[in-house]
Amino acid sequence: MQNSYLLEPTMKNIYLAFVKSCKLYSESTHESFTVMRNCVTELYALDPVSAYQHAFVYIRQLAIHVRNATTSMTEQDIHLVYNWQFVNCLRLWTYMVCQPSLKEAFQPLVYPLVQVIDSTLTLIPTARYYPLRLHCVELYLQLITATGVFIPVAPLLLDLIENDKFLAKSTTTAKPPDVRFLTRIPKTYLASRPVQDAVISKAIALLADYFKLYERHVAFPELAYPVARSLKAYAKKCRVSQWSTATKALATKLEKQIEAVIREREGISGSPMELKNVQVKK
């Protein structure tokens, strides 16, 4: 590439500019975030080999922040991870890993990135940080779709859906903030029914999206059955009709797909790993 000696410092500078500019995230800044993300990606796509070297260094920096927070559990170190700047960096690298122009060069970074995301969402696994967990799960689904890597997402969402604190009576009616633009729920809104509705509804939707990715997989019954069973049990005890109806509907849908895959699987000749022989009708 002509003037390639200028490209590497430019890659560094544009990423650092992105990091400085993504400290906040809201409905009003979403569009600018998308533009910046696309600009960084397009520049890195000019030289995937050099881009990989930069990505390796910067993903490693994110991993170090998470490791320090996990080790020390101090408020300062945790704050370096649980903020929009960190989450938006994870979003950027996930987006780039999934791009066709960078997919091959960035393939070795998939596992390290998954590990960083996992360590991030499990750092403080409390209800206040459920919005951050949902953001991380969205990144997982992008990675699964683009790379085919298996990530056990269902337990992360079931844990959220089945939280007994959300089954308690709501104690506030104040208008809540938009959870799409939160990394954590303010304490005053944790018992707010609208906030809980938004969190639970999003979790159920993501769970449905997750199983949609595997609905034609030969191992779908084994993957989905325990979750369908848990959802049915939850629907019976849940006193919030909206959540009960949604989880029961998802459980029923999973059960129907389980039966369909089992029927098709019974007709497979040879090894069950011959996935091309499984053609489940939608």
TrEMBL record:
A single GO BP: ribosomal large subunit biogenesis
Keywords in alphabetical order: Nucleus
Record flagged with keyword Ribonucleoprotein: no
Listed InterPro entries: Noc2
Statement: the UniProt record of this protein carries the keyword Cell membrane: no
Localisation: Nucleus
Gene Ontology cellular-component terms listed: Noc1p-Noc2p complex; Noc2p-Noc3p complex; nucleolus; nucleoplasm
Main location (coarse class): nucleus
One Pfam family here: Noc2
Family, as annotated: Belongs to the NOC2 family.
Protein's recorded name: Nucleolar complex protein 2
